[in-house]
Write a structure and sequence with these properties.
- The structure is a single chain.
- The protein has about 300 residues and is α/β, with parallel strands linked by helices.
- About 55% of the residues lie in helices and about 10% in strands.
- The chain has a domain at about 110-305: 3-Layer(aba) Sandwich (Rossmann fold).
- It has a five-stranded parallel beta sheet with strand order 2-3-1-4-5, sandwiched between helices.
- It is elongated.
- Bound molecules: adenosine-5'-diphosphate, cytidine-5'-monophosphate and magnesium ion.
């Protein structure tokens, strides 16, 4: 150790000592010196030649800068897209306001009455009387749906079957199309008559969106006949009808579901038309003839008023 220190001292103090060939230099000096250069067999990766002497973190800063600019560009792009979408939506809306859909049938030439009421209120029964006395064409939405369900090859057969059994409202596109087709077919087959064609649209609209669509695209109604009947009366009538009707929904489970749908989904339609003063409300719990005597006189009065005859 003593020797090593002496040799080290001698080397540091002797100029040109480092230039001696390594074989002549004592190995102990090399290992002992604190400024020894890295060993050649070191597994450490060699430092890059161009390594910056400065501690300034260039690479992370560049990465942050690039990420920031990318995010900014993305945000600007998103904003532009959003602005374009809003502009397009506004344009579409203004076009809609200018080009309001024209109803397929002219309400000045065609009389439409909606006949509404809970299941079993007596809509079909009273419609038969109105057909006889006023020359209406009777179109029951439920009957049209049942016929479509039975039609061989119908793509809606299964869907209608399920909706009817569950007492739910069939998607309006199906029902509106069936009604419009039936009205068209009836008008095409019609012989000239002295009063405008009259339609009783029975059991429709059963939902507010159906009402809006039909009024805008098919034909606005003149007024609504609403058969108002308590649930217990309707339930007894439907269970009685179920003995012979063969209908998949004239059973107590389906009846309860239909009542729920009527209260939650169909009553708002009646309320909507009532606000416009377009509802003729009739007590439907009375016997058939009693109900009809009111309906007959009121419908006669309203037709006169609305058809201007
Ligand atoms: P809706 O078409 O509203 O479902 P319907 O006209 O088919 O109702 O009538 C349901 C059942 O009640 C039928 O069996 C019908 O004969 C009977 N019905 C209809 N109106 C009356 C009434 N005012 N009094 C007693 N029974 C009625
Ligand atoms: O009017 P009706 O009692 O014949 O209707 C039977 C069923 O047909 C309803 O319970 C409903 O499932 C379906 N329906 C419908 N939309 C309508 C009329 C009837 O989904 N506008
Ligand atoms: Mg009916």
């Amino acid at each position: 150790m003593q020797l090593a220190r002496q040799l080290l001292k001698a080397r540091i103090s002797a100029p040109g000592a480092a230039l001696k060939p390594s074989c002549l230099r004592p190995t102990t000096i090399r290992t002992a010196t604190p400024t020894a250069s890295p060993r050649l067999y070191s597994t450490k990766p060699k430092e890059p030649l161009h390594k910056s002497k400065s501690n300034f973190p260039v690479v992370p800063l560049v990465a942050i800068f690039l990420a920031g600019s990318g995010a900014f560009a993305y945000m600007v792009n998103q904003r532009k897209e959003l602005e374009q979408k809003v502009k397009a939506a506004k344009e579409a809306e203004s076009i809609k306001q200018v080009v309001k859909p024209t109803p397929f049938f002219n309400p000045k030439e065609v009389t439409v009455l909606y006949v509404l009421g809970g299941p079993g209120a007596g809509k079909g029964t009273q419609c038969a009387n109105l057909v006889r006395d006023f020359g209406f064409v009777h179109l029951s939405a439920g009957d049209l749906l049942r016929a479509e369900q039975e039609r061989p090859g119908s793509q809606f057969g299964e869907l209608i079957k399920t909706y009817i059994r569950e007492g739910k409202i069939v998607p309006m596109e199906v029902t509106v199309a069936l009604l419009q087709n039936a009205m068209k077919a009836s008008l095409e087959a019609r012989k000239p008559a002295d009063h405008p064609p009259r339609f009783l649209i029975d059991g429709f609209p059963r939902q507010v969106d159906q009402a809006i669509k039909f009024e805008e695209e098919v034909c606005p109604c003149k007024f609504v006949v609403f058969f108002d009947c308590p649930e217990d009366v309707m339930e007894a009538r439907l269970l009685n009808r179920g003995k012979t009707s063969g209908r998949s929904d004239d059973n107590i489970e389906s009846i309860k579901k239909r009542f729920k749908t009527f209260v939650n989904t169909s009553m708002p339609v009646i309320d909507m038309f009532a606000k416009d003063g377009k509802v003729l409300s009739v007590n439907a719990a009375a016997p058939v003839e009693t109900v009809y005597s009111t309906v007959k006189s009121e419908v006669a009065r309203l037709l006169k008023e609305k058809e201007g005859k």
